[in-house]
Input
Amino acid sequence: MNDDREISKAAQIPGTWQIFLGSLRRVVREPLGALGLVLVLFVLVSAIGATWLSPYEPNKIDIRAKLQAPSAEHILGTDQLGRDTFSRVLVGGQIALKVSLISIGLALIIGLMLGLIAGFGPRWLDNSLMLLFDSVRSFPTVMFALAVVTLFGPSLTTVMIVVIVTQIPIYGRMVRSQTLALKDAEFILAERAIGAGFFRIIGMHILPNVIGPLLILASMDIPFVITIEAGLSFLGMGVRPPTPSWGSILNDGYSYIYNTPWPVIAGGIPVILTTLGFTFLGESLRDVFDPKLRKEI
Amino acid sequence: MKPLLELSGVRVRFRSRSTLNALLNGDRDPFVDAVNGVSLHIGKGETYGLVGESGSGKTTLARSIIGLVQPQEGSIRYDGTELVGMAPAEMQRFRGHVGTMFQDPVGSLSPRMTIRSLLAEPFKIHNMANRDLGQEVNRLLDMVGLNQDFANRYPHQLSGGQARRVGVARALALDPKLIVADEPTAGLDVSVQGEILNLLGRLQDKLGLSILVITHNLNVVRHITDRMGIMYFGRILEQGPTSTMFHQPSHPYTLALLSANPEPDPDARIDRLELQGEVPSLLNRPAGCEFHPRCPFTDDVCKTTFPEPNTAGDDHSYRCHHPRHL
Amino acid sequence: MGGDNVLEISGLSVEFATERGKLRALRNVDLSIPRGAIVGVVGESGCGKSTMINSIIGLLAHNASVTTGSIVFEGSDLLQKSERELRDIRGKRISMVFQDPMTTLNPVLSIGTQMIDIQYRDPINAEQKKARSIEMLQRVDIPDPESRLGNYPHQFSGGMRQRIAIAMALQAEPALLIADEPTTALDATLEVQIIHRLKDLQRSMGCSILFISHHLGVIAELCDYVIVMYGGEVVERGSVRDIFHRPSHPYTEKLLECDPARITATTRSLPTIPGEIPDLANLPRGCIFAERCDKSVAVCLEQAPVDRETGDHHWARCHLCGDHAG
Output
């Protein structure tokens, strides 16, 4: 029996392509959804193509050109070391996206697995996991971040660890409650009746039905994570100079705000656009997938 | 002839409250008996109708036969093998060999799987994936009269009748000798009910199947079952050959059920045996014969002792102090 | 059926805008409910009964539109009314009972609270409202109603919940009660109890009832007049005796034939109506039932039939009827 192949086949959610296109169509019909989609695509494209799109080396110092306002040569101006802000923002976007996708991705996978087991497994396991989740959640995030920084020093990894650990209980709980709801569904009973075991049921029958809402929730967390990264980097607990991240751009710009506001604006705008984009898109997707809104015959 | 399925004194209890809770409330018994001492048997090629209203325990009994619920007492012998007390791993293997059909035709099919995957699944679970699954799927679809391109559809794309047929196909995948069908006509329009029942009948003749039908629809039972049992409050009050029970019922509850059937004839004058009162809760079992609070023929002995099984002829037994055929 | 009709639907057609095109869910529906009468609606899935009810109470989905027709209730057309006017009527002049009583009952409020709450429009004081609620519960055979006012819906059995829902619906003494499959989920003995109670209440209150059910026996016992719906059209209407004893439309005949309760001789091969209902987004040119009808002739496939009188106030929409006009 090739469980790996089967589980990956199930996770493909057959018919995905049609569902995907159909949902996209519905999303685009709503103005906010369309706007969200455009913004997200814009962010994605600029992040992926950062290395080709940046006109300058993001870390190239040119003191003579420092703190310039936007011009033809430097679209968003320069920072205190003469580095081109636009290039730094683009590369910063790459970092922001990498951090958020990896950490949310990992948190999602672990949260999904734990949630499925908690929901479908024995009572004592559920209770223990919930106790664990609640303990983690009750710990203030900033304090946790400080503790991690003290242990591992400030870096991207620090940021990712903090994010992963704080997000796992959120996704885990959500998956667990959905699993509990499905546990007594008639088709699950039918699967048990033909002899399906624990892992087959959670992998092939429960997982495909809970993953949809989970993905939407996770996609709406992307801006949140980016903001956390920006915040932690701003506080000096994130990336080390000279690596550009939106937070460090903001941090640098903050000191020079009396000289020129442009670095701060340049660092802040991408965060705002990304947050708005993912939030609009995520909410629009959630509405599209809400079965109650599908009242047409 | 040895029966295919034999139940003896099966008892299934559920916890109604925690032991601590029970102690605090002065309740000596924190359990409810969903199935309280049921004995029946089904022969090869026979159709048995288990009739009862909601709360009678018929669903729980069916689940204990399929192995989804373990009885606390009693014995369930299937083709000679004792199912009660079977190890879970063995039980899982056994489950492929009793076909099951669930009440909700579409809801009992996993929504994100194609019909093909659903029909191939029993083989994969029971380590028979080395067969040509494509061929098996087509064979099963053929058996239930569905076109081969149904294999690509999803459950929500099927009508009630089509989903029912997939349910039959799935139940038959591993060549079982017994099918347990829970309300096979529920959710089906009257004009379509016959299709499923006729299909089951044909397959039964062809494959020599035994079928246990669980329903509260007496009209269907009359046509398709050889024997039937009436269940109330976890016990079988009367059982026997279907035609005998329809023409000479013994138990007052049987009489009430039979007469409660509205006739599709506005001029029919029906002699109704109307029952008084409500079905009591399982938490508050009446003393003696549990049917006595609603029975119009109750007297003192009914309130104190539960009647033992009595026979009224060939394979026809009942439990009543004042059977109606006398 | 002439004279005082509490509800009169004329030529009602309703369409739904969907991704596949316009779904013509109701076409040219005529229905009259005389004062104090019980009218039954018989039909299978896809016949349009839910759409019709939603049109009456004004709760159609947002993608539905009424293309023609009128629904005249107590003299005025409901389709012309504003949402506020309809809200005034709902629950007061027109009440509803659904298949699942939990559609009506709020699980987190006691039934006393709910029954008193819905009297909010009445200019009487709290004591009087409470007394009225108790009286209503007595009339639906809820034992010891005064002490049970504080109970929650889950503390009652399914049959009792439905009776409470009926009590709530009739409390306002509406002119019309719409009952949508109210007994379908209940067992036979409970079903009989409820329809008897309904009949008694209806007689004493004088309200009219529109009773939807696919259970032919119940319709025969309860209703005075019956309409038969198929694929969005009313294919036959008449008195209950006419429909059950002298059905004119082939669909009605077939439907009655398929009801297992009506088939007297025990048979292993139950009749069915082969085929499926047509796609409402892609209607056939002629009669809606033609492709499944074993009496159809050429004209049936070409031309849609009109209503023809086959008896006293007995109409059927069929090319082959009406030769024996009453």
Observations:
- The mean pLDDT of chain C is 88.
- The CA atoms of residues 205 and 247 of chain C lie 31 Å apart.
